[in-house]
Q: What sequence folds into this?
């Protein structure tokens, strides 16, 4: 066996990229048939926030900010910048490093830029385990979209708002269902109340991705928890997805 040449390893990486991209795009197509996702799309329209046709997209998230999941968590753009992405090797990639986000936040605090959360959903294609993982991530982001639509929340500046929408997204997406937790090797002996703990743990990680809120992420999540864990809107009750 000869040693790998640089060209061979570049080629292997390109092949892997293509596999990840095709797989991610397939999951987005199949999500249009997922009843929960269809329901949330329908609710968004009824709330007056018609989702754009390219709401959900696959991106290369190498070096992205945010902790653990399949989705870029903080999506802020200044009003003069349309898309939260740059071209990297001719492909779209998640643009925001922590430095960039902090730069934008500093500008906002100086009154130089007006930031908004973009109504776009990025799946980080190299972090998807399987179809249900991808669809849970999409449900998670659609819950944020519903929250942004139904209230005048400002999750960039208001850390309680951010904690609340993260709690709801973790809770209602099924990401903390016991089967998912078991697959992740996280289901310990304390079965009772595990869902709440999981929602809390993951919500704290998400809130930490916002530099405005990172310092006291656990306090914000604790303060918002009871109210927001109970709030199952737009579902009548918790959608037990399995
Ligand atoms: Zn989130």
A:
């Amino acid at each position: 066996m000869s040693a790998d040449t640089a060209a061979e390893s570049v080629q292997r990486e390109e092949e892997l990229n293509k596999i990840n991209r095709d797989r991610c795009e397939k999951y987005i197509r199949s999500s249009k048939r997922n009843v929960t996702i269809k329901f949330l799309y329908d609710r968004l329209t009824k709330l007056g926030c018609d989702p754009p046709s390219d709401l959900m997209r696959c991106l290369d998230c190498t070096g992205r900010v945010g902790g653990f999941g399949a989705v870029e968590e903080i999506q802020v753009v200044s009003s003069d910048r349309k898309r939260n992405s740059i071209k990297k090797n001719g492909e779209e990639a998640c643009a925001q490093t922590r430095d960039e986000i902090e730069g934008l936040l500093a500008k906002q605090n100086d009154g130089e830029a007006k930031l908004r959360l973009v109504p776009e959903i990025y799946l980080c294609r190299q972090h998807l385990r399987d179809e249900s993982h991808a669809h849970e991530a999409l449900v998670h982001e659609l819950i944020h979209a519903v929250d942004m639509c139904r209230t005048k929340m400002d999750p960039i500046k208001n850390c309680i708002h951010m904690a609340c929408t993260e709690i709801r997204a973790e809770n209602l997406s099924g990401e903390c269902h016991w089967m998912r937790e078991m697959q992740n090797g996280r289901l310990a002996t304390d079965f009772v109340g595990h869902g709440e703990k999981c929602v809390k743990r993951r919500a704290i990680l998400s809130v930490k991705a916002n530099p405005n809120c990172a310092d006291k992420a656990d306090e914000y999540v604790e303060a918002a928890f009871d109210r927001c864990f109970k709030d199952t809107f737009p579902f009548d009750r918790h959608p037990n997805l399995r």
Notes: DSSP finds eight helices and six strands in the chain. Confidence is low (pLDDT under 50) at residues 65-95. Residues 6-31 form the longest helix (26 residues).
